[in-house]
Amino acid sequence: MWLSTPVYVLKRQAKLLARQTDTPLNQALDKVASGQGYQSWSHLAATLKNESPARELLSQLKPGDLCLVGARPSQGKTLLGLELAARASRVGRKSFFFTLDYHERDVADRFASMGIARHAVEHTVVVDTSDDVSADYIIRRLRSEQGPTLVVVDYLQLLDQKRTNPSLNDQLRVLCNYAADTGSNCVVLSQIDRRFDMGSKRMPGKSDIRAPNPIDLSAFGKFVFLHNGKLQFDQAA
């Protein structure tokens, strides 16, 4: 069973409901969970622990994959990327989360919203919030790593915001070559154009990827789109 709304949004809804109705938070959580088709919040949490989009995505990744994950704002793509990194670390893979969008505190808050204490993953998930993040910067950080890694980049449209950085296409080729040469996985989070909200489609696709600058999507071997708690895999371009 998939959620119609990301978990962290449901928690916010429960907190608001608790304040508005002067209801204990645990009861508000249960009511919100019931609205999603679960018996209680604990039932929801236990189910999602075994049936999460991150678990499904991780199972689909093959060595050398460069994967794009696209979603509109507040659909949970950052949480998906962080959970993906955390899950990979639990099976013995070194994971990196590079973000141009969040600070360390933001990342810690999002780990906490998933019930993961930052200190529980800090030795296996490297979080880099440098303003210098680009494909070349990422490769320099990974140069000394032994064995395949899992890399999450947050997010595509910010990689060339500095005029001194290479074009998106050049950076994607660098990341693609790194993944192929090392057998690593590189997952790049991406914005979806706001025109998707005005259409009738239930799930965004490759044509909805926001492209302020031209993007050659052929570098990606996998496309994953997230909307309303559901995950969809598309064929490579």
Automatic annotation (TrEMBL):
Superkingdom field: Bacteria
InterPro entries: DNA_helicase_DnaB-like_C, P-loop_NTPase
Record-annotated membrane-spanning stretches: none
A Pfam family recorded for this sequence: DnaB_C
A Gene Ontology molecular function term of the record: helicase activity
SUPFAM superfamilies: P-loop containing nucleoside triphosphate hydrolases
Name of the protein in its database record: DNA helicase
Organism: Ruegeria marisflavi
